[in-house]
Fold:
Amino acid sequence: MVRAVIFDVDGTLVDSVDLHAKAWQEAFQHFGKQVAFEAVRSQIGKGGDHLMPEFLPREQIERQGKEIEQYRTNLFKRQYMPLVKPLPGVRQLFQRLRDDGRQIALASSAKGDELETYKRIANISDLLDTETSSDDAQQSKPDPDIFQAALHRLHDAPPADAVAIGDSPYDAEAAGKTGLRTIGVLSGGFPEDRLRRAGCAEIYRDVAHLLQHYNESLLRITSGASHG
Structure:
């Protein structure tokens, strides 16, 4: 029986992936690096510690990495955070999980203060048991630290008793390293085949679609079959 469900946030609960990509693209441009939007977008879901090395030389990261990430953070909060919208079905799925006695945690690569804003946007603050952010982990996704921290805060729940839900291959990779099964959603824009290769056991259009198929999903079954 699944006793706990651990959710990614960006692209899973709120529509923010394109906005993060734009903020990173502008930040790189500000520091002299031209990067294509789609190239940046394909890396959203990672924290800055893993995203920046995809585009910048190690020497520049050592010299300017903290400054670049702070510029990106300030730009996102100022210009793009007000544009973030909730994805459909989020509160309804959380309520269904609560009604069924599941614990709910967030495991996000966002900073802690950003996560507070996302919780308000998605209208889920009163339905959560716990949360973890990049502030709680040494390494961001696809490293497993954030999911490990979430399990710890769920009273050291065994990975076999929990399911992760996320929109990016980095969610599935991080969850897999933690021993968690992952349900993927397409709402973050990553292609289905990439999510499957990363280890997603099931894939749905978004959390609203998952809610429609709740009784056939990993959220209801105890072992064995998977659907997608």
